[in-house]
Amino acid sequence: MPKPVIEDAIVQEKLRVRPGRHILPSLFRRKMPSQRNRNDLEEIEYVPMHDGQEPEARAGGKPPLRLIGFLLLVILPFAASSIYYAFIASDQYVAEARFAVRAVSGATDSSENSDAAGSGGGAASALNMRSASQDAYVVTSFIHSTEILRRIGAKLDYRAMFTKQDADFLTRFNASQSDEEFLKYWNDHVTAYIDVTSGIITLKVRAFAPGDSVKLADAIIEESEKLINELSERARNDIVRSMKADVEKSGKAYGDTLVALNQFQNASGLLSPQTQAKSSGTLLTGLLAKKMEFETRLFVMRQSKAESSPTYQQLNLAKDSLDAQIEKMKSELTGPENASLAKALLEYSRLDTDRLIAQKLYESSQKNYDAVLAEALRKTLYLAVFVKPALPEESIFPRRVSTPLIILLALIVTWATLSLIWASVEDHRI
């Protein structure tokens, strides 16, 4: 073969680009403008000549890194999830129920309402402050707690429903795990949420058998209804107990004022200082009038020069006796502080005022207690179930088509993100 022909073949083989480099285009690789018009030495494969013949291009080569990553991160997990959801995943049946927490109170006439509003005040309406929506949140929290598991466990073997051997190994619960782990598993298979606008609670129970889901839903509703009854009774008892304590406190205060008043009456010897003062005042007024009469007669006799007569002497003695009685009565009314009737009257007035105030408070608290007790007996919280759990005819879970597609989308996004990060790192090396 002529030498020019051989040299041309060698040059062409040296400039030949590897075919394996273009199996998957470099989507994320960028080049500097100065490098776009020249050949990259890394993409040139030098192939030696054999006996003057043109060698064949290599059919194989090292697969690209991105292709390997796509197979490992996307294709294999998607294939595994598709096989699992198509052939291995067990059917799960959902029983759904809907209910609401309602509050009802008996009808009362206008006079009772006016009495409760006028005398009972805010205490009689304390039961009305309980919100049914708050009780609904209490029920949903109760459904997702260990307390309902303890109550249901007394009549149902709920763990056996989720540890069946015919269920797939990824979905069924491991019987050797703790109660805390089962609570997480329970919250994944039992959901209860509230419609904020209407207050309706929607309960969904997912199990491996249709009958098990219905049994669990019925048990949950039954225990929730018991909880509502307990809350209603407890609130009623708390309010009634609080009002009863107020009645007992005010009654004790009223009794103490009566005892203090009785002790004062026994110590002073006065049943009613006011009456005594009124009687003393009336008597003193009469004595003063009698004294004025005697003084008038004595004045007349002195004008008549009859001072030496026996009548004059008797009137004078009677006047002196009246003066002594008047001074004594005045001393009783306004005498020394310890023996003064005015002091006794002041102390009696204070004690009697305390008694009247304690009596009014006791009567008011008694009326409040009667109003709250009547309202508590009329008011009731109950669980209204308007959609009962029905036996499911077909399984809703697992979603054998949509779930693998969602997994595929997530895997593709992950792979694309990692590829972008890798391309960014490679660009910084240039």
TrEMBL record:
Entries under InterPro entries matching the protein: Bact_polysacc_biosynth/exp (IPR050445)
GO molecular-function terms, A-Z: protein tyrosine kinase activity
Record keywords: Membrane, Transmembrane, Transmembrane helix
GO CC term (a single one): plasma membrane
Extent of the signal sequence: none
Segments crossing the lipid bilayer: 67-87, 405-425
Protein name as catalogued: Capsular polysaccharide transport system permease protein
Organism whose genome encodes this protein: Rhizobium lusitanum
